[in-house]
Amino acid sequence: METPTDEHGKLSEPFLTSSPSKGGFRTLPFILAMEAFERVAIVGITTNMIVYLTGEFGMETATAASVIFVWSAATGFTPIIGAFIADSYMGKYPMIGIGTIIGFLGMILLWSTAMIPQARPYCDQFNIICEAPTIPQLLLLYFSLGLISIGAGGIRSSFMAIGVDQLDERNNSHGFFNWCYVTLMFSSLIAVTLIVYIQDNMGWKMGFGVPVMLMFLSAVAFFLPSSFYIKLKPKASLLTGLAQVIVASFRNRHIALPSHAANEVYYIREGSMLQVPSEKLRFLNKACMIKNPQEDLTSKGTASNPWSLCTIDQVEDLKALIRVMPLCSAGIMLSVTVNQGSLMVIQAGTMDRHVTSNFEIPAASFSLFMMISVVVWIAFYDQIALPLASKIKGQPVRLGLKQRMGIGLLCSCASMVASAFVECTRRKIAIEEGFSDEPQAVVHMSALWVLPFYVLAGLSEAFNAIALIEFCYSNLPKTMSTIAANVNGLGGFTGNLVASLITSMVDNVTKKGGESWVSSNMNKGHYDYYYCLLAGLSMLNFVYFLVCCKAHGPCHGDNENEAENSGIGDHESIDDC
Predict the structure, then answer these.
(1) Which of the listed residues 381, 450, 478, 559 has the most CB atoms within 10 Å of its CB?
(2) 451: closest CA among 373, 545, 362?
(3) Rounded to two decimals, what is the model's pTM?
(4) Do 471 and 538 lie in a common domain?
(5) Structural domain of residue 484, as residue ranges?
């Protein structure tokens, strides 16, 4: 986080010292507009990208899916790197500014693959016979996607934080977060409807041209009020502090820990409530152990070398992070299943998508139902389910964090079971109708059958993702709130990489015995087997989650534990955590 300093080097309060001519609510619409334009552009091209790669670049379905998984992983991970660079070296304003420019350049390059025939392989009129893409064509494609990921990382890493910087203590930052959520949701809805509709009906030149304009507008919206922004300078990042603990504990690995901890032995930050480190993960305590006060401390009592001696607070921060990591890692498999939406686009494209005789839903727009299920469930859970359960019990009731996370994992498993059933039925109908060699033929089966996947995937996100963020916020120190906020990004990054690995392995192994399960011809492949495999892995992941829950023990964040600690039993929780 960035904090301004006065001339004596002491921390100052940015909300009170900032000039009235800077910051305030007047800058927030520009920040929200910047993120809205960026989100519509990137979500719009991501949703339908598998159709572009298989149709215009002639990629195999498995290869295209792997490309999208890796690209999505990069887009999820770059904001974490961007946050570290912005907090430690660059600052939020330059980070976002550079991100908008790089993202705009990436969009132009991607647009050029649709505009310039030589930038993509030749495909016939029906995209049935396509030449293999050349190395320069692939390099241009991958370079453009890489620039888009870097641009998204620069923007998404800091847009919320710079928005909060504009508000003083009299303003309501909670309201800003609400508007951020509304902006992101509304932008995604526009992306999967309007942008996808343009791509399906007006072609890729217009379908990628509109996102280029949106990225340009995103840059304009951000730079327009530049003179009014409060721009705070960066300071040392929390991630640096965590790295210092790891390095210091390794450097001091040969030091023997005392049998009885004493205040004089450990380096205590001024004003800290922690006087001795905890006994868990004791080997990390070596990082905060003072070996020789004359050498390890300066005349002012600070560490001579922060990479050899850390505070107890730094050590305990790292311990808290390590303690929540196993439960967080259980969400990786959920990301794998949710990210199968790219394959669902291909599947829905071979089914009857007509709502009326003159209108059909674009295949990529079915992800709209996932977003709707998230919003509907959150509203139902908060406004109907909890009040009703509390009324029946006669006291406030709610699901525990671990229970909600577990239900989300089960929903993700169920989404794969439903997908396997639907694909098995669709494939059987396609074969019966004589479409074995026509992968693009539309079978007589309503595409609404794919809705169970999107609804269950949405419920898994609503249960698990939100509970996971709450779990991290309640079990990590306040100084690690940035990490807690980005836990979903980390899970999505890892999940996309794992999904790419699984898809590639399945393709390489199954095609040795004939047709690959994830063949470009869905009517000859066995996507139903592939979905069953993911369902089985999801169930194993749920067992792993239960083991992690037992090993973790009780956690903070539920009223039952808080009531027990305070001696007041006013609330009842359905689970201990």
Answers:
(1) 450
(2) 373
(3) 0.75
(4) yes
(5) 321-554
